[in-house]
Amino acid sequence: MSKTSPPKVADDLLVSLDYVLIVEGEVLESTSDSKPIQFIQGEGQIIPGLEDALYGMSLGEAKTISVPAAEAYGEIDPASIHKANKDEFALDIPLNVGTFLDLSEGGDTLSAQIIAKDENTITLDFNHPLAGQDLVFEVTVVGLHPATEGELRK
Which domains are assigned to the chain? Predict the structure, then answer.
């Protein structure tokens, strides 16, 4: 009888992961009160720096992973910051600094945050809210199995 080693995170495995996301010492997200996230390793379903760091982890293994901004949501792109006239927006939309808006353009929906305003214009930031941020994840692999055909097609 041959003894098989426990599975390790590799491409095409369905990974269930408990995690805590920490940015600048503050917990932003956690699965502690919810179900673990599930994704297929190697499919780009999570940020690249986290996915890369998970390779080789075993079921039940826990570790802290630091992901620099460039391997997470990227650096802040100044080309993704735009000014718009206030009169381009419906009167019932609150145009306050910090407000997030979902805007439609050419059939696509883009999210933006209002980062500045004056009498006539608002400044919209289309960067991801965590762009430019280094992220720290405390992770535990809580499930690991080969992805089924159905899971691979999702």
Answer: 13-73+131-146 (3.10.50.40), 78-125 (2.40.10.330)
